[in-house]
Structure formats: C-alpha cells, structure tokens
Amino acid sequence: MSRKGKVLVAMSGGIDSTVTALMLHDQGYEVVGITMKTWDYASSGPGKKETGCCNLDSFNDARMAAVQHGFPHFVLDIREEFGDFVIDNFVEEYLAGRTPNPCVMCNTHIKWRALLKRANALDCEFIATGHYANIRQGENSRFYLSKGIDELKDQSYVLWGLPQDLLARTLLPLGAFRKPEIREMAIGYGYPELAKKSESYEICFVPDNDYRGFLKRRIPTLESSVEGGNFIDKSGKTLGKHRGYPFYTIGQRKGLDIALGKPVYVTGILPETNTIVLGDEDDLNRSEMLVGRINWIKYEGITAGMEAHTKIRYKDKGALSQLYPHEKGIAVKFFEEVKSIAPGQSAVFYEGDDVIGGGIIQL
User: Fold this and answer.
1) Quick check: is 270 in a domain?
2) What φ, ψ does residue 199 adopt, rounded to 5°?
3) What CATH number has the domain bearing residue 189?
4) How far is CA 164 from CA 167, 169, 357, in A?
5) Over the stretch 225-266, which tens digit does the pLDDT of each residue have?
6) Which of 53, 103, 106, 124 is catalytic?
7) Residues 40 and 77 occupy one common structural domain
C-alpha cells in the first residue's frame, strides 16, 4: 500500500498528463494510468487526420510511459457516453442559435464521472489530470478551485462545472508549475520528444476546426433546410441572404459574404426566423447578461451585489462585475461594457484567483 494513496491518472499521451503521472509516482502515490477514447476520427469524415488525445500513437505513448515506470495502464472506451451527451449537446446548441463549449460539458458530465466510476472500481482514493489549476479545502470545508500559477496556461475556466464531490477526490499537481518547468521535467524523465510535441487546441471531434462541416455531416439535410435566411440590421431592414443561422457565431466578421461598404459583425442570431442580425463593432458591447445552470464552488451561494471578476470566454481577461440572484440563475452587471457576449458559452466568476462558480450564458 502506498504511503500517499492510490490515484487514477487520466493519461492522454501528451506532456502534461504524462508528467502528472510520473510526478505523482515519484511523490509516493500508487499510480494507475488510464487513457480515455472519446471519439472515433473515422466519424469525422474522409481525410480527417487523427490528432490530439484520441489516436493510436497517443495511446501507445501513454502505455509506454506507464510500462517504463512500473505502473499499470488501461484504455477506457467512452465513445458512447461522450457521443450521447457532448456531441448531441454541441449540435443542439448550434441549432438553438447558441455557441457551445464542448470541453466544459465533457469535463463536467463525462470525463470526471467516468474517471471516478473507474477509480471506485479500482479502489483509488483520488483521480488526477494534467490541467493547470489548483484545488484546496477552505476554512468553510468546501473544496476551492483556483487558477494555476501559469497565467498563460490556466485552465480553471473549463473546470467550473465540477461539483464538490469531484473536487474532493481530484489532484491537479501541475497547477503549481509553469509550462517551461513541465517541459524541463519531461526531459529529465527521459522524454525529450514530449517537450517538443506541439499542443492541440482543437475540439477533439472537429480536428480540422471546421464546425460547420461537422454539422453538415452530422445532419445531411441541415444546409438545405436553413440556407437563404435574411441578414438584417438592428432596425429590421433586410441586407441580404445568408447560408443558414447555425453557421454563424456572435462577433463573427469574416466569412459573411456580404458587402456593405464597411466592416459588419454578427450581433444577433434568431433561430426561430432563420435570421442573422448584423451591426457595427460597438453593437457588440453589452453591460448585462443572464447566466443559468450555475455550479457554486467557493460558496454555497451569493448575496445580491457581490463583486466578481467575470470571464465570458477561455482567453478572456475578465471584467469587474456584480452578481445578483435571478429566477433563472444569475444576473451579471458589468462596471464597463464587454464585447461579444455569446449565449451558450461559459461565464466563470472569480474572487481573486479563486473560482466562485460558473454557468452557461443564456442571454
């Protein structure tokens, strides 16, 4: 029996998860590696190259690291679980005129639950991943999620949906390090090729970053059923025809295929009438939004007017705001206007480096 306990480590075959497993092994944990197959690239259409975490090379890299360091490794096929929830949600959100964040949905509803289920079956006290964030228990006995010290790599934004029971069992050792340090560790462990390995920021089931093509393959009749809707301005004047409302996102400027003599942006998506609203850049600015499907982390709830630094997308720097309870979730009022608030994306509330909670932007 290990002096630190037994931990199930999610290993994608990349540098971060590999160093996580080896670091915990060196610290005295009894490590079990597991690689989750979430997606079959053959389903992405002809000619799509397997990249990222779901290809055979990555599986082999993860297994090799485990074998070389003397701990067991398993491959877990969760394609059915992943597809039923994450991909269906992805498609449904675009059909509803919203912009989904599948990585948040996957972490919250699929990966962590799948890990915990297998951890329990293998008598593991903990689960661990290679995310750059930190978890600690606060004075109020709740488990806090906070930013990793590497601001360029911090991934607390995509973990806001983890409830207390999952945070209590999760180890995130990389949160205390910066990426260059992890690259040095990989070299020290004898994996210089990992230190040079490029990172993928694509959605795993959209390897070419063409979500429009993915939607068309998923629903062959989609394009013909939605093409020819109207572009309108904020006064309702028709400006031209578009390719179908699911193929546009809030804030989009390029690829509109309409010439109006000035730059215009998508400022609204109206699925009920297959209409896209175009406007000036200033029309993207808003000072309020409504957030639903809330998960509280640091506190059990909030008091009206609580101040928070709110991020509306992963690479967003965030903006100072006040939070107010609302019958449909949380009303957020920003001190200064923010740009391109997109329904379907995640809003995450911070107090310093700590995540207060988060939810899905409704409007």
Assistant:
1) yes
2) -100, 145
3) 3.40.50.620
4) 5, 9, 11
5) 999 999 999 999 999 999 999 999 999 999 998 999 999 999
6) 106
7) yes
